[in-house]
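FORM 7B: Structural annotation worksheet

SECTION A. Query
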Amino acid sequence: MGQLLVILFLLVSPHHGTSQYEMDTEVSLTGTVKEWTFENPHSWLWLNVTGAKGNVEEWSIESAPPSYLSRQGWSAATLKAGEKITILTSPLRRETRRGILLEVKRSNGETLIVRPRGSFGRPAGITPR
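SECTION B. Predicted structure
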């Protein structure tokens, strides 16, 4: 009976999707990978970004589930701690240094896409940080 209740709860509980994010805004961040987790229900990237005044800010960036990312060619080994990257993210509403991952550009020029452009409409603009 307990398992049935858990299953029913999971079926009827809402999933936030992208409604918590400003999907019409894209922010460009350059930093160093602190950690990359490739786990359910969502993968996460922690990125250390050096601000204009030289202070390091940690950004927590949500990404898609591993099942989705795997179909895009991603894996648990895709990003390594210490790797310098530039990302595009749409920021979380009402919270700083959080966002949802759109794409990653590596220092070798390779671009890794999480969500193909146009999935959420046309962005208002890209803001470098």
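SECTION C. Observations
DSSP finds two helices and seven strands in the chain. The chain has one domain: 16-128.

SECTION D. Sign-off
Analyst initials: ____
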